[in-house]
Design brief:
The protein has about 625 residues and is of the alpha/beta class. Helix content is about 45%, strand content about 10%. The longest helix is centred in the last third of the chain and has 21 residues. Bound molecules: zinc ion. DNA polymerase III is a complex, multichain enzyme responsible for most of the replicative synthesis in bacteria. This DNA polymerase also exhibits 3' to 5' exonuclease activity.
Length: about 625
């Protein structure tokens, strides 16, 4: 008997067997059970997530005759009738799959459509499945439109694409659209485990974990890689073999690197990078593994209770991840993640991949946020006690990170450590007045977090305006407390235009919340005659419904264009402009306070200064 590859052997044959696409499966099952069937379906999603599979199951559901030949349309095709068997083996005359990647032209589409006039030969429905439909030429799309709009009642279209943005709106609007999600590594892992149990192939859990990660959300890739690994490992899956096959980096190196970065230990960083070169480990997968670990750390930092529920039997990395998560502040984790992610793109540009890797890692050290070096509260208390000129009254300790904020009676005067401008305390909490000029700009070097000499010991006089309970999670600062002042936005015509347009749409209330978020967070990067390109940083913002609403609202303003969304860095978005304007108002408000005679008196009396960013404009 010939060997059937895992991806084909374990291709789901019913909706119930489909993994990780519950939302799509449920919608289709409901439609089939209630017989509310659309005539055209569009399945989108990356490769290997089940687009073809779902199409075949749908064809079976429509055509299944049941084991006794009496069945009708069903959400649970029997798998034993002639129709089911023929569709599974690719011999069903009324089910046609056309691969648009290799049949792009109008001729291929037309010859397919010519068959549409004939009633099904064998089944209840003819099903035309067009895979990678975005590859069709424009003429081919146009040839298809008429039939797609009003097909004969015995004809169903199933379109599939990895790139729905390239599918014309005229086609999209005629289809019921389903997005198949990339699968989470845990889902893939679970499936691989059950497949290998069924195949009786011994496998180390860590080996499967590596394969599940390498598959990047594609079940087909996961199964193909597993086939390859079984051949490589001569019938068993061992962690070392799989690691070797994938060229992936031992997590030990990755943990060591992150720990060294957390501790600011440059020597270990350089040594480890050289060890990676010696061992022939890939620089790209080092950064990739680092991002995976950093992501897990960030989750733990945001949701510490996850650490307790993590099962060290299924995830051998859990303990190390938790340890590193406690070593590194959340903002630094974010920064490292971002630098690692973007650093991957640089590797190919440098003549020496490992030199580039070393540079990326050292950049992490160079841009380390100041907060990492010492616990802000302890440093401040020290400064407070040692500063001889300090006004000794019941004190509010102003924390640089805004996390050690303690309630104090109104009108008390307090003493605190220098507040770096890059980490402003939450606005509106108190009006703080300082004796020393406050550091402006970049993060301070670690050495400066030591208490400064007594003569220069800065004093803060804080007049609490509002009482703020101390946050319960000391180690998890809210994101808005971490953000420093944004760099000025360079002027641009597109930026001006987009800001004005978005403001107008919001004022006219012509867009809903999702579309508004997309509009506010996006940068207009190109304006062609019939298409505008917007860039957003988060894929999440790019929802088809939001895009559609925004397109409509723009059309209402006389801009009848198609919108294309790309994912990337955003410098100039309406949201950022609004933030900059708010910052400017803040500056003006501080200016006003500064010129207030009473405050001026205070400042003269105590040789004090206002801490920027500590008051809120009315
Ligand atoms: Zn059947």
């Amino acid at each position: 008997m010939s060997y059937l590859v895992l991806a084909r052997k374990f291709r789901p044959k019913t909706f119930g067997e489909m993994v990780g696409q519950g939302h799509v499966v449920q919608a289709l099952e409901n439609a089939l059970t209630t017989q509310r069937l659309h005539h055209a379906y569009l399945f989108t999603g990356t490769r290997g997530v089940g687009k073809t599979t779902v199409s075949r199951i749908l064809a079976k559901s429509l055509n299944c005759q049941g084991p006794d030949g009496q069945g009708g349309i069903t959400a649970t095709p029997c798998g034993v009738c002639q129709a089911c068997k023929d569709i599974d083996s690719g011999r069903f005359v009324d089910y046609t799959e056309l691969d648009a990647a290799s049949n792009r032209g109008v001729d291929e589409v037309q010859s397919l459509l010519e068959q549409a006039v004939y009633k099904p030969v064998q089944g209840r429905f003819k099903v035309f499945m067009i895979d990678e439909v975005h590859m069709l030429t424009n003429t081919a799309f146009n040839a298809m439109l008429k039939t797609l709009e009003e097909p004969p009642e015995y004809l169903k279209f199933v379109l599939a694409t990895t790139d729905p943005q390239k599918v014309p709106v005229t086609v999209l609007s005629r289809c019921l659209q389903f997005n198949l999600r990339p699968m989470a590594p845990e889902t893939v892992l679970e499936h691989l485990t059950s497949v290998l149990q069924a195949e009786q192939v011994p496998a180390e859990p860590q080996a499967l974990r590596l394969l599940a990660r390498a598959a990047r959300g594609s079940m087909r890739d996961a199964l193909s890689l597993t086939d390859q690994a079984i051949a490589f490992g001569n019938g068993e899956l061992l962690e070392n073999g799989v690691r070797q096959m994938l060229g992936s980096v031992d997590r030990g190196h990755v943990f060591k690197l992150i720990e060294a970065l957390a501790l600011g230990d440059g020597r270990t960083v350089v040594d480890t990078s050289e060890a990676l070169r010696r061992d022939g480990m890939s620089a790209a997968s080092t950064l990739e593994e680092m991002t995976a670990v950093l992501q897990a750390m960030a989750v733990l930092q945001a949701v510490p209770s996850r650490a307790e529920s993590a099962d060290s039997a299924t995830d051998p990395d859990a303990a190390d991840t938790a340890r590193l998560a406690s070593l590194m502040p959340a903002d630094e984790t974010q920064l490292l993640y971002s630098l690692c992610l973007h650093g991957r793109g640089e590797l190919g540009l440098a003549p020496d991949e490992y030199a580039a890797l070393t540079m990326v890692l050292l950049r992490l050290l160079a841009f380390k946020p100041s907060s990492a070096a010492a616990s802000p509260a302890s440093t401040e208390k020290k400064t407070l006690n040692e500063a001889p000129g300090a006004v000794s009254v019941p004190a509010t300790v102003a924390s640089a990170r805004g996390t050690a904020e303690i309630a104090a009676a109104p009108a008390s005067i307090s003493v605190a450590a220098p507040v770096p401008r890059s980490n402003p305390a939450p606005a509106g909490q108190r009006l703080a007045v300082v004796s020393e000029p406050v550091r402006q700009g970049g993060p301070r070097p670690a050495a400066e977090t030591e208490p400064s000499p007594a003569a220069e010991a800065p004093r803060v006089l804080a007049v609490p305006m509002r009482v703020q309970p101390p946050p319960s999670q000391r180690d998890v600062p809210r994101p808005d407390e971490q953000r420093g002042p944004a760099p000025p936005i360079p002027p641009s015509e597109d930026g001006d235009f987009w800001h004005a347009t978005v403001t107008q749409m919001i004022a006219a209330e012509s867009i809903n919340a999702l579309a508004r978020e997309l509009a506010l967070q996006s940068q207009l990067v190109a304006r062609d005659v019939d298409q505008w390109i917007l860039r957003v940083e988060r894929e999440l913002l790019n929802q088809p419904s939001a895009r559609e609403k925004l397109t409509d609202a723009l059309a209402a303003l006389g801009h009848g264009v198609k919108l294309a969304i790309e994912i990337g860095g955003v410098v100039d978005s309406p949201a950022r402009r609004n933030k900059q304007a708010a910052d400017e108002r803040q500056r003006v408000a501080e200016e006003a306070i500064r010129s207030d005679p009473e405050v001026q008196m205070l400042m003269r009396e105590f040789d004090a200064k206002i801490v920027p960013g500590t008051l809120k404009p009315a």
